[in-house]
Amino acid sequence: MKKLITLAVAMLVAVSAQARQGDDIPTPPHSMWIEDDRLIKLYDDNEVYADSGYRGKWLEMFATVRSIRETFAGDIVLELATDTRLSPIRAYLQDGYEAQAAKLKKGQTIVLDCVGGGMVLGSPVLRRCVIPQ
To answer: Quick one: which of 122, 112, 50 has its CA closest to 76?
Structure first.
């Protein structure tokens, strides 16, 4: 049991650290539009191909909030519902969006601008997410 808890904590630390990478990426004037289900399909079909097109790039999408969580490190994570699979897209909000996150509700549809962060533990990850006004 102790090994299982240690493994779970190590995985959470890795995911949180990966979500914080790329803080030097500037916000572009325009983000690339992608549908959430298309992003899932691309990563499910070929992670290497999806990374080449979306990892490290600014993406914009409509998304339905499945849950709003805070990691042990204080990062706010939105799990986004998708029509195609049980595992959600995980969107890590940029610092300073705590007030907006506090107003969100499960099932609410929002627009997000995020940096593609690849795939972690079987789910696409979005980093530095902002909720445009």
So the answer is: 112
CA distances from 45 to 33, 39, 49, 90, 121 (A): 19, 10, 9, 18, 15
Flag whether pLDDT at 68 surpasses 60.
yes
pTM over 0.90, yes/no: no
Q: Rounded to whole angstroms, what are the CA distances from 121 to 15, 27, 47, 130?
A: 8, 27, 12, 23
- Sign of the dihedral defined by the CA atoms of residues 57, 118, 103, 61, in that order: positive
pLDDT digit string, tens, across residues 3-52: 433 434 444 444 444 444 444 545 555 678 998 889 989 999 999 999 99
Instruction: Walk me through the domains of the chain, giving residue ranges and CATH numbers.
Output: 2-130 (2.40.50.140)
Q: Is 36 exposed, middle or buried (0-12, 13-18, 19+ CB in 10 A)?
A: buried
